Amino acid sequence: MSQPIFDLAVIGGGINGAGIARDAAGRGAKVVLLERGDLARGTSSASTKLIHGGLRYLEHYEFALVRESLIERERLWAIAPHIIWPLRFILPHQKGIRPAWLVRLGLFLYDHIGGRKLLPATRTVKLASEPAGKPLKPQFTTAFEYSDCWVDDARLVIFNAMDAAQHGAEIRTHSEVTHIERRDGIWHIEIAGQPPIKARAVANAAGPAVLELLARTTGRQRNAAETIRLVRGSHIVVRKMFDTPQAYFCQNPDGRIFFAIPYEDDFTLIGTTDADHKGSLDDIIATPEEIDYICESAGAYFKQTITAADVIYAYAGVRPLVDDGSGKPETASRGYHFEVDVDADGQAPILSVFGGKITTYRHLAESAVKKLAGYMPILDGRSWTLQQPLPGGDFPTDGADNLADELQRAYPFLPASLTHRWVRSYGTLTRSILADAHSIADLGTHFGHGLYAREVDYLIGKEWARSASDILWRRSKLGLRFSAEETQNLESYVAGKLRE
């Protein structure tokens, strides 16, 4: 039997790869996505978890990038209201860094250049009379409150992969591409421990490893100009520092910024840093120096002092930014560009993605597929991802509470905290997970902190989870609460299910 040929092989299971696979599959292409580990295992689960325009990018005159991001912000909220929701930010005015009029001008542009329709506008805040001022040191008297959105970054990747699969794509995790070669107008792709596959086109969405993949490629022209800048961003998680619903956007004297964000009900997420990354891409960690920097930065703004000893969890991700020659890593462009290489007959394209940010992933994917469509007639011209909800997101942007109430009435045995988490994780898919459950006992073994066997089985069967880590840190953030013993019990259960 002859080996089937895919129309498109997408290499990389981060947000850009999942987005490209979804878009192309929805246009009728036979797609396979190859990821060497778990979906979203790298940069795409190590972000600051914001859908935002990037207020600080205005200072670097990246007006087009900010506008594109702001336009996408409400579009993404509309198609994924279960994992994206509005968040107000408090920007305390720090005297001596930027004059208040300049900050207000930047926020005026931020409110108006991206077609904001639903999110509330910026307002000036007198901190002494606002609850949002209580966590801050008393020298901060004035602030600006503006809007952006929060996102569960890893679940955004999962839902794009799920939608790709629902449109016929094959999603193959733990499938490391070791070599790709163009022969007779077809790409031959070797995968560690698996039979090779063939594809008419390749999308290289390997993120920080984009150049590593190109180095394993034969049958393409080398482009001496292709280069990226690897910038590491680190974050810390500490016990809740404030009870206000807003997040905080703070400016440091060195020109860098950080966010302090309400996180998973009981915690505060603080980050990020910007540092050039020179080491391995396999073991990326927040360094002690970066952790200390974040703690010291927070201490300059908040009454509560934190040190490295208060850090419950720290993580870091490497952003593959376009190297635009910027002197400092924090000023490197968050824009993106593509390189397309074809054979002598103008066929068998390989498109490589350089740069990008999570907020612009959908538009990036659409642009990538449109570029590939010039070589692949099977890719029709429909722009379909703009309004099509992601799995579980088929309800209004203000409908999460109504959905939770509906589920609570239908399944009154559910703890309210579990209903809340499931709505914010699965949206309307929660109904299919619960299915015929009539009591809490029907959810099976309780592993702790609201994680039951029924949810674990769903994650293994529908979301490609293969380990406790996949479940506790990417499909959820329950790893913040699980003990070593609870984690081991879950790991044993998952291993048993995979053997069945």
TrEMBL record:
Q: What InterPro entries does this protein's entry cite?
A: DAO_C (IPR031656), DAO_C_sf (IPR038299), FAD-dep_OxRdtase (IPR006076), FAD/NAD-bd_sf (IPR036188), G3P_DH_FAD-dep (IPR000447)
**What's the chief localization of this chain?**
cytoplasm
Q: State its location(s).
A: Cytoplasm
Question: Where in this chain does the record put each FAD dependent oxidoreductase domain?
Answer: 7-326
Top-level taxon of origin: Bacteria
Annotated PANTHER family: GLYCEROL-3-PHOSPHATE DEHYDROGENASE, GLYCEROL-3-PHOSPHATE DEHYDROGENASE, MITOCHONDRIAL
> What's the protein called, per UniProt?
Glycerol-3-phosphate dehydrogenase
Q: Which organism is it from?
A: Sphingorhabdus rigui
* Organism lineage: Bacteria, Pseudomonadati, Pseudomonadota, Alphaproteobacteria, Sphingomonadales
